[in-house]
Specification:
This protein is mainly α. The chain is built from two helices and no strands. α1 crosses α2. The longest helix has 30 residues, at 33-62.
Length: 66
């Protein structure tokens, strides 16, 4: 059960980080509409996956997960 809760928390944290960064980038670029949504989705997913991978590596290095 703890593994599921940890995974859900990780998904929420990484998704929020990706969404926040994507929103900031799209806002700085001045995009809106469909183009802004597509750019935000791509940036958000790339950042979220990178954060998930980095977190997994860090937790494995710390010995918290196998």
């Amino acid at each position: 059960m703890a593994s599921i809760i940890g995974s859900v928390l990780g998904i929420l944290v990484c998704g929020s980080l990706g969404g926040g960064i994507a929103w900031a980038v799209v806002g700085m670029l001045g995009l809106s509409g469909a183009a802004g949504a597509i750019v935000a989705a791509v940036i958000g997913m790339v950042v979220a996956v990178a954060a998930w991978a980095a977190g997994s590596v860090a937790l494995r290095a710390a010995g918290w997960i196998r």
